[in-house]
Backbone:
């Protein structure tokens, strides 16, 4: 059974940093696309960053470019999101997602709805001013 488990969330002051991790078990070796999403209270879920199977192709939503870095370690089946220069508007529940189709990465980059097959339970990030 496939499982995605996030960790690393917490509370920080504006300007601080956090590193989120997502450990994938089960079918992990066949992920074509992995991603981080976030959802703030009262707002729609937003695709934050995506990464291709080999890690050679990444996407970032405009609001996090230059501050967040997505990476993956295929040997450890781990996806990470390094978040720096955090802002109060980054406050949200962050979710790890994975899918066996690269179409999901392309959809996120195009600003379209993406149907990922697997999701983690989420980890809360709170940034105070």
Residues:
């Amino acid at each position: 059974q496939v499982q995605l488990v996030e960790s690393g969330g917490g509370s920080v002051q504006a300007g601080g940093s956090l590193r989120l991790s997502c450990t994938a078990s089960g079918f992990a070796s066949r992920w074509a696309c992995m991603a981080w999403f976030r959802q703030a209270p009262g707002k729609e879920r937003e695709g934050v960053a995506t990464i291709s199977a080999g890690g050679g192709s990444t996407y970032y939503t405009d609001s996090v470019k230059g501050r967040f870095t997505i990476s993956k370690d295929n040997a450890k089946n781990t996806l990470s999101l390094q978040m720096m220069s955090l802002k109060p508007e980054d406050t949200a529940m962050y979710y790890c997602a994975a899918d066996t189709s690269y179409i999901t990465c392309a959809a996120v980059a195009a600003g379209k709805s993406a149907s990922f097959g697997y999701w983690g339970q989420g980890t809360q990030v709170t940034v105070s001013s």
Notes: The two ends are 41 Å apart (CA to CA). Helices lie at 103-109. The mean pLDDT is 93.
